[in-house]
Amino acid sequence: MKDKLTLMIPGPTPVPETVLRAMGRHPIGHRSGAFQASVARTTAQLKWLHQTSNDVLVITGSGTAAMEAGIINTLSRGDRVLCGDNGKFGERWVNLCQAYGLAVETIKAAWGQPLDPSAFQAVLEADTEKRIRAVILTHSETSTGVINDLEAIAGHVRAHGRALTLVDCVTSLGATTVPVDAWGLDVVASGSQKGYMIPPGLSFVSMSARAWEAHGRSDLPKFYLDLGPYRKSAARNSNPFTPAVNLYFALETALEMMQAEGLEAIFARHARHRAAAQAGMKALGVNLFSAEGCGSPAITAVDPGCDAEALRQLVKNKYDILLAGGQDHLKGRIFRIGHLGFVCDRDVLTAVAAIEGALLEMGVACVEAGAGVAAAARALNA
Amino acid sequence: MKDKLTLMIPGPTPVPETVLRAMGRHPIGHRSGAFQASVARTTAQLKWLHQTSNDVLVITGSGTAAMEAGIINTLSRGDRVLCGDNGKFGERWVNLCQAYGLAVETIKAAWGQPLDPSAFQAVLEADTEKRIRAVILTHSETSTGVINDLEAIAGHVRAHGRALTLVDCVTSLGATTVPVDAWGLDVVASGSQKGYMIPPGLSFVSMSARAWEAHGRSDLPKFYLDLGPYRKSAARNSNPFTPAVNLYFALETALEMMQAEGLEAIFARHARHRAAAQAGMKALGVNLFSAEGCGSPAITAVDPGCDAEALRQLVKNKYDILLAGGQDHLKGRIFRIGHLGFVCDRDVLTAVAAIEGALLEMGVACVEAGAGVAAAARALNA
């Protein structure tokens, strides 16, 4: 049905009408007082979301631009870094570091498994000469629906004393707590089309005092993504280059909505949706792809034991719900339910109902009709 | 008056309601067939606008991101390049090249004067060993309202035979002809909030076959702005990273409007507005900042002989028109009338009328009331 498709993918996520309307205004001058006032307000809102007093800078670009900014602003050619890699976005960190000539050591876990904090601890403790300059990882691994234990890993980095913690929080920020100051996260990268509930086009980087010290030493070449000028401009509520003005309008409005809901309520909602999606899938007799106990609050990856792409097409065509497919070698094997951002209980319940209907139609489900929805509803009301 | 301010700055430029409405849709999945169809259409439209069969790639970022992409995708550390510099954006090219360790030779002209093509010819002809790898310049120098003779300079580069031509066409594309193939322009960078008539957030890079050959040799580090993956994705009407989906909606709609108007009509409109703005200012007895005969079709810079910022504030507060101020050392000395993109005859006439009124109120005008508007109207009807 035209214009009825609902997004339940990990980005772009659904956007509130209020936000779309704010975005649809005529643009204003990016050097005007009115725009500077908007930048001042969003900067305060962003610090609230990041639970930090660090700088949080806004880049016009995708989440990858923010990840790259984190690397090239804090590291130098040949620096030794430790990367966590348990999915496509962990791989991206490794590729990014290699593109800039860093000496990358990788701690891997199989796709669907979480990174093991004790593996980080062992390498960091063995580094008595303090040669590791950064520990780099993905908090919520979007490709597999796994949340990594960032708090524990960041604790080991703090104990090391020398390395910085650089984290991709693209699908965790706004879905679960990311207390930047409490956990000592030096660089946190995120993107607008996720928990922020606005369309793609803006990305965000928080930088700690230690990250700025490293910026002063960094010799990697940069210009558009050099955060130095962003910091200087931010001090007068401005940007070094013309920003996506209309996405700023959207951002301010979305963050107002998030502040009205409150951080704890937002995190509880995402946790409830994860519980409902997981309970629904288990009741249908299909397997979760992520290991027990480490499912992301933003996305539930499912291994249905049938052609996942055929199921996804059926859910799209018959129920007007867009689920995400598997990436790389998981294409056709898994599908992913996005429950990130502007998602309500009804959305999760209908997604489970649609998947249930599609599994029944495909002759896959091992249980009776209604079991998935019943389990999801119980989880929502728990 | 609230919400009545009209933008007559060189970006963001005014956006048609049709485009704002297209942009205000709910986002769709960036890997969906519907989005790929949109990418296919906009790619064809972009080639039409660039008058080229070269690749034209879309980056989520500002015009500076596109400029940087041009540099880092075609050059290598230590490469010798020749930069034209006659304003703030010429300076930006120089800074960008230096940030990447290129050996920059500069051909300068005073702010307000055009670059001298024969100066390029002399340096290029003297380079018998063909060590110059690129000639880099700004077509329309936004800071001074000067258009450089790109056709002549590009001709000298072609005669050299080895160097590439890299051009910032941020405020010329969509305002005057930029026949990429006919002039042999290897890299052309532009930005969405200009002639494209959409809000900021997208930028564009066209790459010739010779530019792609250079890409294969380039050793400058890059990731988000590496155009290789963009080219690969573009072949299947996709993007390597999540693009600003809603700005794509705006882009497609704006380019449809431009195609309906036609390139020749668009260029004639901008030339007419330049003539009207120039005639109006001259009739008011104030000086144009750009040298005679080289005013940009996108922007008219004016040296009013009084406090330009006070005049700009008066025009803003009393007439609800936002003019641009001077940049760097020109702040307070000049103001700039943007007539780029979605600008009609009425807009130019009212801008001249407002400036006339403000000059009279400030006691600056040397001529009788009505002279500016009369001259502008004559030019519009010539």
CATH domain fold name of the largest domain in chain A: Aspartate Aminotransferase, domain 2
Largest sheet descriptor of chain A: 7 strands, mixed
What's the shape of chain A? globular
Q: Report the helical percentage of chain A.
A: 40-55%
Name of the CATH architecture of the largest domain in chain A: 3-Layer(aba) Sandwich
Largest interface, by Cβ-Cβ below 8 angstroms: which chains and how many residues each?
Answer: A-B, 50 and 50 residues
If you had to describe this structure to a student in words, what would you say it looks like?
Chain A contains 14 helices and 14 strands. By secondary structure, the first copy, chain A, is α/β, with parallel strands linked by helices. Chain A has 2 domains: 15-258, Type I PLP-dependent aspartate aminotransferase-like (Major domain) (Aspartate Aminotransferase, domain 2), CATH 3.40.640.10; 261-379, Alpha-Beta Complex (Aspartate Aminotransferase, domain 1). In chain A, the strands form 3 sheets. In chain A, strands 2-10-9-8-5-3-4 form a 7-stranded mixed β-sheet, sandwiched between helices. Chain A has a 5-stranded mixed β-sheet with strand order 1-13-14-12-11. Chain A has a two-stranded antiparallel ribbon with strand order 6-7. In chain A, a hairpin with a 4-residue loop joins strand 6 (140-141) and strand 7 (146-147). The first copy, chain A, starts with 5 loop residues before the first strand and ends with a helix. The relative contact order of chain A is 0.17. At the A-B interface, helix 1, helix 3, helix 4 and helix 10 of A face helix 1, helix 3, helix 4 and helix 10 of B.
